[in-house]
Amino acid sequence: MGKSKTGLIATGIEVVTFLLVIIAFSTPHWLESDYTQQNVKFEKLGLWTVCFHNFTEIHFWYDTPFNACWWIFEEEYYIISNFLLPGFFVAVQFFFTLCFTLHIIGLLSAAVYMGCSRENSRFVKFLLFFGSLLISAALSGTIAVYLFGLYGDGRDWMPDWDHNNIGWSYALAVIGVIGSYAAGILYLIESRRHHIKKSRERIINATYQMEERAHTNI
């Protein structure tokens, strides 16, 4: 059940990538204030958490201040849900959740890969599936980080936009996406390599059998 260097490198990248993706998925540092101005209203934001300090939404006619860090779907935030959840951010949540989910399946697939024999008749198809799964995760993650990078720190969303910066959680998400592409491509290369190897073995076996038949007939 020995694995090639390419397969082991791909598996290592997948494990590290999964850790990066789960940290980015769960931490509230996709966007954060630089704290250089007085009376900071917006502090930091993740996919599922947002932190305010005496923030009131100017388009909401109740003078309700928001403080501390809350789950973004908390009942108290319902009155400003249109502000908190613009279309682009909902898309970011959806596509990065899809990326995260595919990586959970990918981690399970990595365990299967490490325990699966290369002689298994479905080994090549499994590698093809695994590589395609990670490429799909990478594509979903790409859409998420692209949309957030494009609109996340824009002037039309969080207050004091000129003092807001992309945070380290977003950086980990980007690195995770790159790692997803790398691992997926390596598994696809491994699949192609084993496919060629098995094809050659079939040709050699067929040639040997033909020679055996010819020798027997003689």
Automatic annotation (TrEMBL):
Does Acyltransferase appear among the keywords?
A: no
Keywords, A to Z? Membrane, Transmembrane, Transmembrane helix
| Membrane topology annotation | Multi-pass membrane protein
Q: Which Pfam families match?
A: Claudin_2 (PF13903)
GO cellular component terms listed in the entry, alphabetical order: membrane
Annotated TM spans: 7-25, 88-114, 126-148, 168-189
* Primary residence: membrane
Localization annotation = Membrane
Which chain positions lie within coiled-coil regions? none
Q: State the name under which the record lists this protein.
A: Uncharacterized protein
